[in-house]
Amino acid sequence: MLSLHRTSFRQLLLVAFLLIAALLASASLQGLVTLERLIAQSLEGAERAVQATAAVQTLAERSVVMERAARQYLVLDDPALHERFDAASRQAAEVLAGLERNQLTPSLAETWRAAAAAIAARLDGPRATARQREQDLTEAFGRLAAINDDVARQMQQVMQARNESLRAELEAGRLQLGRQVLAAIVLAVAMALAFGVWLARPLKRLEAAIAGLGANRLDEPIEIRGPADVRQLGRSLDALRIRLGELDADKARFLRHISHELKTPLSALREGVALLEDGVTGELTPNQREVARILRQNTRALQSQIEDLLRFNAAVFEARVLQRRRVDLAALLARVVDDQRLQAQARQVQVTVAGGPAWAEVDPDKLATAFGNLLSNALRFSPVGGTIQFELSRHAGAMRIQIADAGPGVAPADRDRVFEPFYRGERQPLEGMRGSGIGLSIVHEYVAAHGGRIELLPDGPGAVFRIDLPLSATTEP
């Protein structure tokens, strides 16, 4: 017996194919043996029927020869004719014995022999009684002919009974062969399904492990049970998970360190610029004051970029761990809209939420952040007096959340890069500061952490974003 822990996936697959092939081959061989047996029985029955028919015909012919020889002997009194009668009688007796072996009833055979013996007894006698004996032979041969007819009818019945028996056996053999083939097919299908499920189980675990790595779930150990090569692949994936976790931790550590290292001289630079602008080191000329102003703006921009980098890195790290609980997405959207109600009122923008209730097992804080970033982005680009609409619905096995604004939309050149970190499109609002380029990236990270997908639709005229959360993460109210 093969050990599961020592055999490879290919060996187990080969064993499965061989077992199924052996089952089908066994059923085929059994069917072939049954078929050959039935064919042999059919041929034997046909041969015995032909022999019986020929024997009945031969018996009738020998009886005719016996009658002819007997009549000629009574007229001519030639010993050769008596010998011919005796020879024909012996041949007929041999044929009768063969018919008896071929299921002719012994009583009918004895009747024939008695009739033949009576005929032989009437051949010998004085010449004066020849005419009387000839009349007696006519009656005796008439009885013998009737017995031959009885023999023929009985043998025909025997052959019919054999044919019926053979037909019944053939039908039984056909049914048995059909049951064997059907049972073999059903068992082969069952074995194929069982082996398929059994062998596919570690592959599903591998698929789930790879999906977990793709979703950046690096805190879940990977342990795959199954054949040796699959378990080895699982260990390799777990080693990759550990390595990715180390690299991610190194990246986060590097960002924290470099941000700290940049903040210290940046703070000193800002303080120095402030001292220059305050005239601590002496009154500045207009040109010097302009240079100081430029330095102040760039230091602020640099500090903002460092803070955005830290914020995005923190969001990516936090997306790995979800604190799921059952919430109503419609109520969650209403809360997000209420949090930014003042910004909407300032721009006279109407925000509506359609659909719901829609219950889901999600991390409400992270989804609230994602919805908030989408709403903030839509408010920045919406014209004064515009509208923003959230819409909740179920579609194709997913919970769908769609947000549409009335702004200028996303430029065609920016559509493929809109979710990239720190990427800012060419269409920016005329008033206000340019965005940091990480809001939509954080939305993408949080939606992906829930197993969902976000995409930018080409509907227009404004920007239309659609989020699909799998129903496996949702529950009925």
Walk me through the structure:
This protein has ten helices and seven strands. It is α+β, with helices and mostly antiparallel strands. It folds into three domains: 185 residues, Four Helix Bundle (Hemerythrin (Met), subunit A) (Up-down Bundle), CATH 1.20.120; 90 residues, Helix Hairpins (Orthogonal Bundle); 149 residues, Heat Shock Protein 90 (2-Layer Sandwich). It has a five-stranded mixed sheet with strand order 2-4-5-7-6. A two-stranded antiparallel ribbon has the order 1-3. Helix 1 runs antiparallel to helix 2. The radius of gyration is 53 Å and the shape is rod-shaped. The C terminus is likely disordered.
How large is the count of helical segments?
10
The H/E string reads HHHHHHEHHEEHEEHEE
What class do helices, strands and sheet pairing give? Answer: alpha+beta
The CATH topology of the largest domain comes to Four Helix Bundle (Hemerythrin (Met), subunit A)
Work out the oligomeric state of the chains in this entry: single chain
Features:
single chain, 477 residues, alpha+beta, Four Helix Bundle (Hemerythrin (Met), subunit A), Helix Hairpins, Heat Shock Protein 90, 3 domains, five-stranded mixed sheet, two-stranded antiparallel sheet, 10 helices, 9% strand, rod-shaped
